[in-house]
Specification:
The protein is of the alpha+beta class. It has four helices and five strands. Strands 1, 2, 3, 4 and 5 form a five-stranded antiparallel beta sheet that branches.
Length: 145
Amino acid sequence: MSSNNPNSQPPVNQILNDIQNVYNSFKKNVLDENAKQTLSKLVELNRKSIEQFINVQSNQVDSYIINSQRSENLIFIAGHALLKVISETEMQIFFDLYFQDKQEQWVNKKFHSEKFFIRDELTDDAFVQLTSVKEFKFDVEPPKE
């Protein structure tokens, strides 16, 4: 039974809906903004110089070298990594590695990393450095097993 009396209490369902709407608005406008700010701060803390970024990625190439040596009986001789801008927003590392087999024949292996968003990974200074020259070349050292 509903009343047209302005002093009457709204139904419980209406109150619950109003509370849910206020919560959703708060969540969307305040909590989502806090999450964005927190994520932005985490990304900022995680950004690195070019050298630091390459050092972090070196585990990938070390694993590749060790696996190649073990599974194919190769000896790692030398190699290089090329950190390269591949689009306005992305970069990628290209590896060019040289091994020798038991007959001392040369074996060249090439592979690349996943793509990375430059602004998420590099500091502002590193971003300017990399985007101005488009690529940096690094020697690949033998992994420490």
